[in-house]
């Protein structure tokens, strides 16, 4: 059975979806990802969907769910590389993915996660002398 | 019946053409500003030749027979050409009906027996009338093509997406926003965001005459779609009247960044991408 690999990059998890996501696969991804966040104590999850060309309301909901679930585990979710057609479809379906951060590509997504992490640590220690 | 009608036309082709051209040149509907007389003659000659070729004693009463396909094709070509050149329907109609006059003139000169003359005139009338119908059908089709092309061009040029700075796109919207236009605007904008890797888009609506709840919904959709792509969208150019309508209609734009002018939107975009525009002090260095 297909499985979507979840890669660890420092304090973040990187998921690249290269195949069309069918319902079962999406559900597995959801549970695997939450498990992994719990195991590794990751502070951010980056999901790259630049290769996904077809999306339905179920998939939109799964993305929203993943974001909410990881937030409970103190990790932010960023969805990157959404295709224009996919964005239009989601909007027409009435899913604006509230609570999910978005970025244009993996690089900017990583920068966004790093920024959020820095901000968090800034708040945590009052010195604010963390490494750039 | 030694000389049948078709033989008459075929053997007097050159004379017929001369008659017809003469009629056209003297007619009020001659438009030498749209088409040169040589071109007119070439087109007419082609049509007369094709007609003479496909006309037989059998098919003259059956205009939908396939032997006339060539004639219809040439006629359609002429008709579409005329539509595109801007000939009026009247001029195009008179063009084909003057051929009828020419043929009738010809047979009046050649046939002396009144009964036969009448008989042949009726047949010619029937044939030329159906040619006239074809001319009009294709003329209108040609006009419609022109209109369709213009519509496409308008919708293409009416939604330009301009890159005003590295990472900042601007999209001035001029004219009414309806569903199909919003779709085009949205698709263009999102595609350009991907192409240029921009993360800020400014939607300028100073050219939108009125904003109702439907237009506002379209704007909100566009903003949400750009957000999904990972870019931020600023709406600028909101006129006081539009601000009033939006509030009166109870449309919630609170989670969208709105600015009064494109300039202030650009300023905000610079601030978001941590850039600043600075005036260079020239006075000391220049002197």
Plain-language structure description:
The complex is a heterodimer of chains A (132) and B (287). By secondary structure, chain A is an alpha/beta fold. Chain A has four helices and five strands. Chain A has one domain: Transcription Regulator spoIIAA. The radius of gyration of chain A is 15 Å and the shape is globular. Chain B has two domains: 5-152, Globin-like, CATH 1.10.490; 162-272, 2-Layer Sandwich (Transcription Regulator spoIIAA). A five-stranded mixed β-sheet of chain B has the order 1-2-3-4-5, with helices on both faces. In chain B, α2 packs across α5, α4 (69-85) packs across α6 and α5 runs antiparallel to α6 (114-157). The mean pLDDT of chain B is 84. The chains are: A alpha/beta (132), B alpha/beta (287). The interface between A and B is medium-sized, with 20 and 19 residues.
Overall shape of chain A: globular
Mean pLDDT of chain B: 84
Distance between the termini of chain A: 42 Å
Spatial order of strands in the largest sheet of chain A:
1-2-3-4-5
CATH fold name of the largest domain in chain B: Globin-like
Number of helices in the DSSP assignment of chain A: 4
Percentage of residues in helical conformation of chain B: 55-70%
Number of domains of chain A: 1
Per CATH, the architecture of chain A is 2-Layer Sandwich
CATH-assigned homologous superfamily of chain A: STAS domain
- So how many helices of chain B? 11
């Amino acid at each position: 059975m297909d499985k979507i690999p979840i890669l660890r990059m420092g304090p973040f998890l990187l998921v690249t979806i290269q195949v069309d996501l069918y319902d079962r696969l999406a559900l597995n991804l959801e549970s695997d990802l939450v498990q992994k966040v719990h195991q590794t104590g990751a502070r951010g999850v980056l999901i790259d969907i630049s290769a996904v060309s077809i999306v339905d309301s179920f998939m939109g909901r799964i993305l929203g769910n993943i974001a909410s679930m990881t937030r409970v585990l103190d990790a932010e979710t960023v969805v990157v590389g959404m295709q224009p057609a996919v964005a239009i479809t989601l909007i027409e379906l009435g899913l604006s993915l509230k609570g999910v951060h978005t970025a244009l590509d993996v690089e900017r997504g990583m920068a966004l996660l790093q920024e959020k992490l820095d901000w968090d640590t800034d708040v945590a220690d009052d010195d604010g002398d963390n490494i750039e | 019946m030694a000389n049948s009608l078709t033989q008459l036309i075929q053997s007097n082709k050159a004379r017929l053409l001369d008659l017809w051209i003469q009629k056209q040149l003297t007619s009020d509907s001659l438009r030498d500003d749209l088409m040169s007389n040589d071109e007119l003659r070439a087109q007419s000659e082609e049509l007369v030749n094709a007609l003479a070729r496909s006309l037989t004693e059998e098919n003259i009463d059956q205009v939908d027979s396939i032997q006339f396909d060539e004639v219809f094709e040439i006629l359609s070509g002429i008709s579409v050409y005329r539509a595109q050149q801007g000939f009026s329907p009247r001029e195009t109609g008179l063009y084909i009906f003057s051929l009828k006059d020419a043929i009738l003139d010809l047979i009046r000169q050649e046939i002396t027996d009144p009964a036969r003359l009448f008989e042949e005139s009726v047949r010619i009338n029937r044939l030329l009338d159906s040619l006239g119908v074809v001319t009009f059908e294709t003329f209108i089709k040609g006009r419609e093509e022109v209109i369709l092309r213009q519509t496409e061009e308008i919708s293409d040029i009416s939604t330009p997406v301009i890159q005003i700075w590295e990472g900042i796109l601007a999209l001035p919207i001029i004219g009414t926003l309806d569903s199909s236009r919003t779709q085009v605007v949205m698709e263009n904008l999102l595609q350009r965001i991907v192409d240029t890797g921009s993360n800020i888009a400014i939607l300028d609506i100073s050219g939108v005459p009125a904003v109702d709840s439907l237009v506002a919904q379209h704007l909100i959709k566009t903003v949400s779609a750009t957000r999904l792509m990972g870019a931020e969208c600023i709406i600028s150019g909101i006129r006081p009247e539009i601000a009033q309508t939006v509030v009166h209609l109870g449309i919630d734009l609170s989670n969208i960044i709105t600015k009064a002018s494109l300039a202030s939107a650009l300023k905000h975009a610079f601030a978001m991408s941590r850039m600043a525009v600075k005036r260079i002090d020239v006075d000391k260095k220049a002197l």
